[in-house]
């Protein structure tokens, strides 16, 4: 079943990452949503884990967090990027 995100889901992601000012970039790669932040201590992984379709939150080295979502990640990435602009 395809995963879809609403505007509210994208806003929840931004808020869980410490607001817009803490997000450097959101990109996608295969099945992952990659979020680069300025300060990783502002990221609420519990909220991220409960977003639709999130299978796993991966706390990467540096200031990057990955959400494993699936093949729908490119569309979700574009939606989240639009919220940041």
Characterization of the model:
The protein has 85 residues and is of the alpha+beta class. Helix content is 32%, strand content 26%. It has three helices and four strands. The protein has helices at 7-16, 45-49, 73-84, and strands spanning 23-29, 32-37, 56-59, 64-68. The protein has a four-stranded antiparallel beta sheet with strand order 1-2-4-3. Strand 1 (23-29) and strand 2 (32-37) form a beta hairpin. Helix 1 crosses helix 3. The protein is globular, with a radius of gyration of 11 Å. The chain starts with 6 loop residues before the first helix and ends with a helix.
Helix-strand topology string: HEEHEEH
Class computed from helices, strands and strand pairing: alpha+beta
The portion of residues forming beta strands comes to 25-35%
Main-sheet strand order equals 1-2-4-3
> pLDDT average, as an integer?
95
Oligomer designation: single chain
Cα(first) to Cα(last) distance is 29 Å
Number of helices: 3
Rg, alpha carbons: 11 Å
Spans of at least 5 consecutive residues with low confidence: none
Helicity range = 25-40%
Main beta sheet: strand number and arrangement?
A: 4 strands, antiparallel
Shape: globular
According to DSSP, the number of beta strands is 4
